[in-house]
Known about the structure:
The protein is of the alpha/beta class. The protein has helices at 4-11, 50-66, 81-88, 102-106, 146-155, 170-182, 194-202, 213-221, 245-248, 269-283, 286-294, 304-325; strands spanning 39-43, 70-74, 96-101, 122-131, 133-137, 161-164, 187-190, 208-212, 227-230, 257-264, 298-299. 39% of the residues lie in helices and 18% in strands.
Amino acid sequence: MTxxxxxxxxxxxxxxxxxxxxxxxxxxxxxRWTPSRSVRLIVPFPAGGSPDVLTRLMSAHAQAALGxxxxxxxxxxxxxxxGSNLVxxxxxxxxTILVAVISSLTAPLMMSPPPYDPVRDFRALxxxxxxxxxxxxxxxxxxxxxxxxxEVIQRNPGRFTFASGGVxxxxxxxxxxxxSMTGANITHVPFRGSAPALVELRAGRVDFxxxxxxxxxxxxxxxxxxxxxxxxxxxxxTLPDLPTIAESVVPGFEAYSWVMWWVPAATPDAVAQRLxxxxxxxxxxxDVQARxxxxxxxxxxxDQAAARAHVTSEHAKWGRIIRERxxxxxx
Length: 331
């Protein structure tokens, strides 16, 4: 049984970041790019949320590394597309960076016409962090394991509902991914945010949700709602009693949120490389690691190739689900 100590430990779990590769020193290296004015970090969500917290922690270290002011700006609206589109149209000179979230990729796929192309219009610098998801049910749901949950869903088509924080948000897409991979006949019930969705789940008015762990952690810890599994590909080391959905019932299932740094697609290589180094070095700082863990992030810090590959994979995966389920953004 998952207890409060395990949940708090889970949120403090931060995998170590790989050490940066050392550049050859046999020949003189060209001067590293430095900004000529303030650098803007555009967060497409309101101040105070997890991506904003991580960004403000990183900004102080980025400012020290770059030798210029690094300013955090919250440009919210339209499922993260207002702030994301702003960066897509900026000069590709390294002075404006998007703190991209999963909605920066998925929201335009639900719009006609889309305001930007998340693959074509951006250059991904680093996968900064992921936020694990967790399968939670109403307290009296007739299952106590993920296997039982899956069997009950399959045996009772049309009977059960799943909650999310709104049409097209990550919890909605996670539920639709489960539906697509299993053929489950379940009904989506959207709310205006994860908090009211969890309130209704605890009250027993909806049946389950696959949503970010930080949102549900307090209710899991006090056993207001049961947690049956995680939506990441691997188990969380400090929650070994929570299996993954993939290992238990749906091979290949993987759904979680993430944060990256993106810049306009035409940003030069030298600029992109320097910003990638700055981002990953900021993630290594103890204060960033500690606070990010409290906010529920699992820090990563990748090179550009890995970040680009992830964007391409997520674009194909969620684009298919959005088309298949005919999901349109409702504002």
